[in-house]
Amino acid sequence: MTKAEVKFDIAGVERETGIGKDALRVWEKRYGFPVPERDEREERLYPQEQVERLRLIKRLLDSGLRPVKVVGLEVPELNVLLEQLQDDTTQHGAELAGFVDLIKSHQGAALRVALSRTLLQQGMEEFLSKTIAPLNRLVGEAWMRGDIRVFEEHLYSEQVNHVLRNAIATLRHPGDTPRILMTTLPGEEHALGLLMAEATLSLCGADCIMLGVQTPIQEIVLAAKAHQVDIVVLSFSSAIPVVQVKSGIRLAREALPKKVALWAGGSGVAKLRSPIEGVQLMGPLSDLTEAVAAWRGAQIQKR
Amino acid sequence: MTKAEVKFDIAGVERETGIGKDALRVWEKRYGFPVPERDEREERLYPQEQVERLRLIKRLLDSGLRPVKVVGLEVPELNVLLEQLQDDTTQHGAELAGFVDLIKSHQGAALRVALSRTLLQQGMEEFLSKTIAPLNRLVGEAWMRGDIRVFEEHLYSEQVNHVLRNAIATLRHPGDTPRILMTTLPGEEHALGLLMAEATLSLCGADCIMLGVQTPIQEIVLAAKAHQVDIVVLSFSSAIPVVQVKSGIRLAREALPKKVALWAGGSGVAKLRSPIEGVQLMGPLSDLTEAVAAWRGAQIQKR
DNA sequence: TCATTAAATTGTCCTAGACAAAAGTGATGA
DNA sequence: TCATCACTTTTGTCTAGGACAATTTAATGA
User: Fold this and answer.
1) Residues 6 or more apart from A278 whose CB is under 8 A from it?
2) pLDDT averaged over consecutive 10-residue blocks of chain A (303 residues)?
3) Beta-ladder partners of A265
4) Which of A138, A257, B114, B135 has the fewest CB atoms within 10 Å, measured from its CB?
5) In 3D, which of A18, A14, A32, A22 has the Cα closest to residue A68?
């Protein structure tokens, strides 16, 4: 019984690893890896182990290393580099470590219960800034190192998702001001940052209209008009390339009417060097609270 | 004040419309549309109205028309074709029409309340089959026609998501059998079908482990092992190309150990002609209930 | 009318080359 | 020693034009 090797075509590798087809082809020429097999049509066929190796490479690239130093390294060498990322994250609050343990032992239900309890203990604001935000970073870094697997990270976001949605449901303010439209641009599929922002804004008494992820720009414009929102909030995770963040924000700003404010937040905007005309860039979640206060102040002035 | 036109590069158009870069370039040559401007580097720059026109074209293609008949048509002609899709969907239960009205008038909160009430009236099983499933189809078709905008569809799925998650939380069966891992493959980002499946399976007393969307195949294998699941359930929406569904299911089946069952469901698998060795293809949600019963029967046999 | 075969359609893959943005390097001066 | 500026390298993504299998449509014959 010959076990048929699992092989991916170039499109499959792009989906599985997040590395573009063009990059895969040009790496092959420049660094000599990956070197896929070819089918009878001379098309690339990547065996499983090369895909796995590409995933390790992707992690190192995402954590700041340059392709010339990592593409082409063998798996053991890659693992050495990955372990070097271990250092700074080890010490942290004991509570956070507890959550991480739950994630690694795959106790989804227990994790959810623990998160809910912490939320009630700390209150939403502290919960987001002292627990969820650092935990996200912790999980993200552990994932980079390969310490937490993708499926474990998926399980984690499911639970956070659940706890946050539940809480948000109890503090909605329909009809209140400001009216805020919340979504991400096409290409950005991480919903967690958006959810955290919604929780913060709902806490301030804002009326949040959540559109979910990946709304085309033109649709954002239409939705902003239909719901007569005062503000559009876009969330960017650090997974998305900086150039995409910049051009995306610019396009959105140009497409939206001037009277609608545009706020951009998330770890993806932290990487932006220069400010963008007519767009408010948010750092930590507390910026949102301040921005709402400022917006309300400006409204009173206008009258 | 010259209003700077919003222009997209080819990657931006791919993200916004879902049409691949290769297709965009080859359409330009074959059908004479789109004909983007060029920047100083001779790179394509698509003005807003061409992107909008491409979105209309994409809708028609998704509903079965062929490129030679629609790419290259002007907006008015496209709209004529879109209106021809109107016919069959108009008559439907009055309750469903009520939901659609709520969507179109952007009353998210009211929609959620109405859905929750219907869920309590009908019970989960009937709610899913008689309300949510047809409503999904109705919304999908209306979206195809341009009758419901993308942002309205996003708002709708947010509300359904919310109602279903809420309900599922109350009927979890941790520790029960069978243990089922639920996710979608990379490329499939629609979570609604997955959520409906989770609701159905939880109702049967199965222990569902929800991984969210887009889990790489290797990660699915690891998660299946870590959680010692009996079954892996993959969901495919109709938005995903058939070839991707087929190769995805095949790869997953080959990568998973034989003792783990693989079930594939959703409107995406309905388009598959031939069965796939070792994989159970699901039609309506009720198939899941039956499959669980069959699985339990087989377990008893084994002892 | 239905099945079978030939022709047209269509998305995705291929190679090979080019270039701007970003990152690294080194020299200069405070 | 450290910051600043100019120069070089790196790197992802774009370009063009060609090819082909898979699917659909059209044409043929029973």
Assistant:
1) A253, A258, A262
2) 72 96 97 94 95 94 92 92 68 80 92 95 94 90 83 93 91 89 94 96 94 93 93 93 90 94 92 84 93 94 76
3) A235
4) A257
5) A32
Please determine, looking at this structure, whether the domain spanning A89-169 carries the CATH number 1.10.1240.10: yes
Q: Does domain A7-84 match CATH 1.20.210.10?
A: no
Task: From chain B, pick out residues whose CB is under 8 angstroms from the CB of A150.
Answer: 215-216, 219
**Residue A163 is which amino acid?**
V
Answer yes or no: is pLDDT of B3 > 50: no
Place of tokens 């998926």: A154
The protein footprint on chain C, as nucleotides within 7 A of a CB, is: 9-15, 17-24
Interval B16-39: pLDDT, tens: 999 999 999 999 999 999 999 999
Q: Of 3.40.1010.10, 3.40.47.10, 3.40.50.280, 3.40.50.150, which CATH number belongs to A173-302? A: 3.40.50.280
Is the CB atom of residue B23 positioned under 7 angstroms from any atom of strand C?
yes
Boundaries of CATH 1.10.1660.10 in chain B? Answer: 7-85
Contacts of A219 in chain B (CB under 8 A): 149-151, 154
